[in-house]
């Protein structure tokens, strides 16, 4: 949840947040102060956050490396929709490199041969080839894709996301407070982020026409836009960085909203 808060709220607004506000936001999800402080300490140890003090207040900011990482991850949620693409095939015998490939959505075909979607930012490890499927709708390829990339589980997760959050469409514009809108939006981002980071983002040509990831992305974009006016107003009025209140709608946030509105 702390990663979600920093990715959604803090990274596009300078990367720094007062600890008291972080505790309050996590408290909205039933996470107590002790757990928040423990988690922050772990993120500091991992090089994700660094502490700063201003008088008696403690602030925690994203390290430069973490901020770059969070920015790239945000492109998966707020950037253009995945278009079709080819494949990357690699013969990769090194276990450490294999772990990196797996984290980036590659699947093991057999031996030391891995396959993944040929999308920007993919690691080029081992002996790498670009490829395309000559029969993308073939039954054998469809079965290979389903089992290698565990698509049934990801499809179920996207379907559950839609079932869980679709009722929020009717309530999104009638929430009691700005704070409630922000907490709803954080819950939305947290749930979508968990699935999106597991999605191998395969070429569209091998996905079923009714792939639930399409509906999930459309719902995420619509709900995020509906919740953002009151949520961002709360951020600008109540959340603090060292220099003062966080900006309500900086350029990076406007860009996110434009991308979601365009459907791109």
Summarize the structure.
With 264 residues, the chain is of the alpha+beta class. The chain is built from eleven helices and nine strands.
Overview of the structural elements:
It contains eleven helices and nine strands. By secondary structure, the chain is of the alpha+beta class. It has a domain at 1-83 and 151-199 and 213-264: Winged helix-like DNA-binding domain superfamily/Winged helix DNA-binding domain (Arc Repressor Mutant, subunit A). The longest helix is centred in the last third of the chain and has 27 residues, at 212-238. The protein is globular. The model has no long low-confidence stretch (mean pLDDT 92).
Task: Throw out a few tags for this protein.
single chain, 264 residues, alpha+beta, 4-stranded antiparallel beta sheet, 11 helices, 9 strands, globular
CATH architectural group of the domain at 1-83 and 151-199 and 213-264? Orthogonal Bundle
Number of separate strands: 9
Largest sheet: 4 strands, antiparallel
Radius of gyration: 20 Å
Show the helix and strand layout.
Layout: H1 2-10, E1 16-18, H2 19-27, H3 33-45, E2 49-54, E3 57-62, H4 64-78, E4 87-91, H5 95-103, E5 107-110, E6 113-117, E7 127-131, H6 139-148, H7 151-165, H8 168-171, H9 178-196, H10 212-238, E8 240-241, E9 244-245, H11 251-262
Antiparallel strand pairs: 1-3, 2-3, 4-6, 4-7, 5-6, 8-9
